[in-house]
């Protein structure tokens, strides 16, 4: 009978401690915000080869719920050390004018209204090869 009583007291203490720790920051605390999830890249397609001259090129990705803006990066290297574009559009697409010839990597992250930025999407690659003149 004494063993069962001790187990009951220990369980009551543990449950009490769990309850105290969950309320220790006060009842008026803000809910914890998680960063927005990454978008899914739509256009240009991964591994797309663009043969026609680029005068205007649209980049598009899936919209993310509660995203206030997006962070679009286009780079000539897959580690994004050399950026040719670093933009913060409010829509889930972005159009650029003129693009040099080469191989490009791009990805997008979502940013919520409080400025919390989520992970970047998967990286996509596209090719704009030199054209014969």
Task: List its traits.
alpha+beta; 5-stranded mixed β-sheet; 133 residues; Immunoglobulin-like; 17% helix
What do these coordinates show?
The chain is α+β, with helices and mostly antiparallel strands and 133 residues long. It has a domain of 88 residues: Immunoglobulins (Immunoglobulin-like, Sandwich). The protein contains one helix and eight strands, in the order αββββββββ. A five-stranded mixed beta sheet has the order 2-8-7-4-5, with no helix packed on it. Strands 1-3-6 form a three-stranded antiparallel beta sheet, with no helix packed on it. The N and C termini lie far apart (94 Å).
The CATH top-level class label of the domain at 41-128: Mainly Beta
Provide the β-strand percentage band: 25-35%
How can the largest sheet be summarized?
A: 5 strands, mixed
Helix content: 10-25%
> Uncertain spans, ≥5 residues at pLDDT below 50?
5-24
The side-by-side strand order for the widest beta sheet comes to 2-8-7-4-5
SSE sequence, one letter per element: HEEEEEEEE
Could you give the count of β-strands? 8
In round numbers, the mean pLDDT is 83
Sum up the overall morphology in one term.
elongated
CATH architecture label name of the domain at 41-128: Sandwich
Between the first and last Cα atoms, what is the distance in angstroms? 94 Å
CATH topology of the domain at 41-128: Immunoglobulin-like
Task: Please identify the structural class as seen in this structure.
Answer: alpha+beta
Q: CATH-wise, what's the superfamily of the domain at 41-128? A: Immunoglobulins
Give the radius of gyration. Answer: 25 Å
Secondary structure tally, helices: 1
